[in-house]
Amino acid sequence: MSLQVLIVYQSRSGATLQLVESLVAGIESASDLVDVEITTVTRSALLGTSKDVRSADALVIATPEHFGSMAGATKVFFEEIWAGCLDQTQGLPWQLLVKAGTDGAQTAEGVQKLAKAQGWKQFRPPLLVVGDLTETALSSAFELGQLLAVSLDNELI
Ligand SMILES: Cc1cc2nc3c(=O)[nH]c(=O)nc-3n(C[C@H](O)[C@H](O)[C@H](O)COP(=O)(O)O)c2cc1C
């Protein structure tokens, strides 16, 4: 049996991508702890499709905050997948990562609203990283990846 985690991200200057890489490393590091094979598919937000989402067993959305809301590319992702996912992906476990300079709260709120409208099931509260990217933040993303993998394996989500 194999489970797929889809990670959809936007990153202009690389910080969000570094968080994504840590999360993926966390998922991969859990391979010794889990019975199922867990594969990851990482997609730029501008390239993600509703088929990608429908094929996923869990979804991670990683976005910077731009101008007080989710990055434009993340919004494009939602516009692209909206109709093709509606009523077809209910209950999908999902996790949000937000990277912001000074705030990020509105981005978290905005993305959570859309995910709720799709009927997705939030895994853990958003990982909100504000300011400089620290080792602690990268470790949090890594641990979140591990927890996601183990929870998927044990059908805890
Ligand atoms: C065009 C633009 C708009 C931004 N607007 C906000 C904002 O409204 N609130 C905030 O906290 N940070 C804002 N930032 C800061 C980014 O969220 C932050 O630099 C983030 O780490 C960028 O992620 P990235 O390195 O993955 O591109 C903005 C950055 C850019 C480039």
Task: Write up what this structure looks like.
The structure is a single chain. By secondary structure, the protein is α/β, with parallel strands linked by helices. The chain has a single domain (about 1-155), classed as Rossmann fold (3-Layer(aba) Sandwich). About 45% of the residues lie in helices and about 25% in strands. It contains five helices and seven strands, in the order βαβαββαβαββα. It has helices at about 15-30, 50-55, 70-85, 105-120, 135-155, and strands spanning about 1-10, 35-45, 60-65, 70, 95-100, 120, 125-130. Strands 1, 2, 3, 4, 5, 6 and 7 form a seven-stranded mixed sheet that branches. About 40% of the residues are buried. The structure holds flavin mononucleotide. Flavin mononucleotide (FMN) binds near residues 17 and 101.
Average pLDDT score:
97
CATH top level class name:
Alpha Beta
CATH topology: Rossmann fold
Which molecules other than protein and nucleic acid are bound? flavin mononucleotide
SSE pattern = EHEHEEHEHEEH
Tell me the CATH architecture: 3-Layer(aba) Sandwich
- Give the helix proportion (percent range): 40-55%
Bin the strand percentage. Answer: 25-35%
Number of strands: 7
Terminus-to-terminus distance: 17 Å
Helix-strand category: alpha/beta
Number of helices: 5
Task: Give the name of the CATH superfamily.
Answer: Flavodoxin domain
Report the major sheet.
7 strands, mixed
| Poorly predicted tracts of residues | none
Shape: globular
- Count of discrete structural domains: 1
Report the C-alpha radius of gyration, rounded: 14 Å
